[in-house]
């Protein structure tokens, strides 16, 4: 198989390559990026990773999109429009208005989406033309929004992935002493806005048992983050990103993750090596959402995006039927959510792609939040694909974490002035 990674100079690419070395069926890996220097840095790390591995895929790099997409079977989309400097600006401008600037949630997520969706749509059109049979696995944030925008051109051939639900399910299984390979996890919502509502082992829901045990519940990340009392009120385990909604006032003052990552990665790209990359990766993971956690993160070994992506790719390529939590078009799976909206739910995956499994309705409080955020995502896509400044303003003003039309106007003006990529807004 031939795999192309768009955004191939990105810092997390060696995680994907490392997983490929374990046996994936990929014989050729093409890295595409608009930054030749970043490509060269990652190529060096991958060469060190592959040393002594007999079945390592051949790696090529290119800044030419047509070359990258020629004869590919799978495309991983992992772009970052504006780079980490853009992320830093998103956070800083939001914080100046006293609102959250996180890159997928609130004002920062809208700004990032406005920059990213136009490029993602261009890529989708290019893939349709140059690689009409290729499957696209979207890593690019905001993942649900970008997958939905690309899906307008690629249909079911684009599938979005995220490692947050996988990590949550793994930690819950560990706390319950259950085998995650055989347990059923009832998870539903949008990307970075979902809830684990049941864990069935042998047909029995054992999540109430966990919710009743404070020690076990607060032994892992989400339990510490939300607190046992609030989780019992919800009767479910939220995705970690719901911290920004449930503790919005406390979250506003958090430090700039973009600035932190920019500083961490500067040294690596200046003098790239496998050892330097590994040190930087561990530092990056150890500080991930550190402001919202107590103690050490429990998944520094990786095993997130890259393993989900490879499991998805193998299921499609070889018909190895599996069930994964993915970002796909809803259809009739999640009641109360539009059929053409992208949701994050368990899916059966095989050679025909990913099909969402029927889910119970969300409770009113969760459905209300999902409906509001999906309306914001769609307004952002509308702005990004039509150039409508009014749609962009609507996205900012209607987001639950902005909560003010005057603030929304100032945010839109500030982002448009700071990011040349937003010059299309009229």
Describe the protein's architecture and organization:
By secondary structure, the chain is an alpha/beta fold. Among the domains are: 2-160, Rossmann fold; 257-292. Helices cover 50% and strands 16% of the residues. It is built from 19 helices and 13 strands. It has helices spanning 13-20, 36-50, 65-69, 83-96, 107-130, 143-154, 164-176, 207-212, 214-217, 221-226, 228-234, 243-246, 248-252, 257-270, 274-286, 305-318, 364-386, 389-398, 405-418; strands at 2-6, 28-32, 58-62, 74-77, 135-138, 158-160, 184-190, 193-201, 204-205, 237-238, 322-329, 342-350, 353-356. The strands form three sheets. The chain has a six-stranded parallel sheet with strand order 3-2-1-4-5-6, with helices on both faces. Helix 1 (13-20) packs across helix 16 (305-318). The longest helix is centred in the N-terminal third of the chain and has 24 residues, at 107-130. The termini are far apart. Residues 291-302 have low confidence and may be disordered.
| Terminal-residue CA separation | 43 Å
Largest sheet: 6 strands, parallel
Give me the CATH superfamily of the domain at 2-160: NAD(P)-binding Rossmann-like Domain
User: What is the CATH first-level class name of the domain at 2-160?
Assistant: Alpha Beta
Compute the number of helices.
19
Tell me the strand order in the biggest sheet: 3-2-1-4-5-6
Shape: globular
- What's the overall average pLDDT, rounded? 93
What's the Cα radius of gyration? 21 Å
Strand content: 15-25%
CATH architecture of the domain at 2-160, by name, is 3-Layer(aba) Sandwich
User: Do you know the CATH topology of the domain at 2-160?
Assistant: Rossmann fold
Determine the structural class based on helices, strands and strand pairing: alpha/beta
Give the fraction of residues assigned to helices.
Answer: 40-55%
Active site: 163, 241
Keywords: Cobalt, Glycosidase, Hydrolase, Iron, Manganese, Metal-binding, NAD, Nickel
Protein name: 6-phospho-beta-glucosidase
Binding site for substrate: 87, 141
């Amino acid at each position: 198989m031939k795999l192309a990674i768009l955004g191939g100079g990105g810092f997390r690419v060696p995680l994907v390559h490392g997983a490929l070395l374990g046996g994936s069926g990929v014989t050729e890996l093409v890295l595409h990026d608009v930054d030749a220097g970043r490509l060269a840095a990652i190529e060096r790390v991958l060469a060190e990773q592959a040393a002594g591995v007999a079945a390592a895929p051949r790696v090529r790099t290119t800044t030419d999109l047509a070359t990258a997409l020629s004869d590919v079977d799978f495309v991983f989309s992992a772009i970052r429009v504006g780079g980490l400097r853009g992320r830093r600006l998103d956070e800083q401008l939001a914080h100046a208005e006293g609102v959250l600037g996180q890159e997928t949630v609130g004002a920062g997520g809208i700004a990032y989406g406005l920059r990213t969706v136009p490029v993602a749509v261009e890529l989708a059109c290019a893939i349709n033309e140059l690689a009409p049979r290729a499957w696209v696995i979207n890593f690019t944030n905001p993942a649900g929004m970008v997958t939905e925008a690309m899906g307008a051109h690629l249909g079911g051939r684009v599938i979005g992935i995220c490692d947050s639900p996988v990590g949550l399910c793994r930690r819950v299984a560990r706390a319950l002493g259950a085998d995650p390979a055989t347990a059923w996890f009832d998870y539903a919502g949008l990307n970075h806005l979902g809830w684990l509502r049941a864990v069935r082992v042998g047909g029995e829901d054992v999540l109430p048992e966990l919710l009743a045990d404070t020690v076990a519940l607060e032994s892992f990340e989400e339990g510490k983050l939300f607190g046992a009392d609030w989780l019992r009120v919800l009767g479910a385990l939220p995705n970690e990103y719901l911290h920004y909604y449930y503790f919005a006032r406390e979250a506003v003052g958090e430090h700039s993750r973009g600035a932190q990552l920019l500083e961490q990665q500067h040294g690596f790209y200046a003098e790239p090596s496998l050892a330097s990359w590994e040190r930087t990766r561990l530092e990056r993971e150890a500080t991930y959402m550190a402001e919202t956690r107590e103690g050490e993160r429990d998944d520094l070994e990786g095993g997130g995006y890259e393993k989900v992506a490879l499991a998805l790719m193998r299921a499609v390529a070889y018909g190895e039927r599996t069930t994964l939590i993915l970002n796909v078009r809803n259809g009739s799976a999640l009641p109360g959510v539009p059929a053409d909206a992208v949701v994050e739910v368990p899916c059966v995956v095989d050679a025909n792609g990913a099909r969402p499994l029927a889910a119970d309705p969300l409770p009113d409080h969760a459905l209300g939040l999902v409906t509001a955020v999906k309306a914001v995502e769609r307004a952002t896509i509308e702005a990004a694909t039509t150039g409508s400044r009014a749609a962009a303003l609507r996205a900012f003003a209607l987001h639950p974490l902005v909560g003010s039309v005057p603030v929304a106007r100032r945010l839109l003006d500030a982002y448009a002035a700071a990011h040349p990529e937003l010059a299309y807004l009229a």
